[in-house]
Design brief:
29% of the residues lie in helices and 27% in strands. It is α/β, with parallel strands linked by helices.
């Protein structure tokens, strides 16, 4: 037991303990310095404000500060912003990021969304309006009546003066006019 205790308090053990401590401190400092160098600690760039720029202009502005532009998404059309102009960006403007960081851009669409006209023929006016509006279409409050037996039954849909076929691609900014029956039988 004495030998065991004498080893722990011996000069050679204490020397080895001090050497181990010095080696650990040097190793930790070396790894810390290496990580700072490898990760470019402290080298940051400010993300510029890209709102309302075209994708090409935004990409060029990001390249100038060593960042990468990535078109992430095309959002619905906003007529106040140029087609394919930047609406949102991530990370946001003013953030500090490292060189080579990707900046994700959400772009304005080139035109209003187009959707296929659903089959609303032989529906009641109320059901047709509900279905069309739920799909994002604008339905006129005024209607056109024709002689047909179904009162307020949809017999056609117009945009302007043109009758639109079911399944046709229509811009959601176009106003739809419903052609309804007036309840009078046209065969008399």
């Amino acid at each position: 037991m004495k030998k065991f205790l004498s080893f722990w308090v011996s000069i050679s053990f204490l020397k080895q303990l001090v050497i181990l401590g010095v080696v650990l401190v040097i190793l930790i400092q070396g790894v810390s310095w290496g990580l700072k160098s490898y990760t470019q600690y402290g080298d940051t760039y400010v993300v510029p404000d890209l709102s309302a720029l075209s994708f090409e202009e935004a990409s060029e502005a990001l390249t100038n500060v060593q960042l990468i532009a990535v078109a992430n998404d095309t959002l619905s059309y906003n007529p106040e912003i140029i087609p394919y102009g930047v609406i949102k960006q991530l990370p946001i403007a003013g953030k500090n990021v490292k060189s080579g960081r990707k900046v994700y851009l959400s772009l304005n669409d080139a035109e209003f969304a187009r959707r296929a006209l659903p089959n609303a023929i032989q529906m009641t006016r109320r059901n047709a309006i509900s279905q069309l509006r739920s799909l994002g279409f604008t339905v006129s409050d005024s209607v056109e009546y024709i002689d047909a037996i179904g009162l307020d039954m949809v017999y056609g849909i117009k945009v302007g003066d043109s009758t639109i076929d079911i399944g046709s691609q229509i811009s959601i900014k176009d106003t739809l006019l419903l052609v309804l029956g007036n309840g009078k039988d046209s065969i008399q």
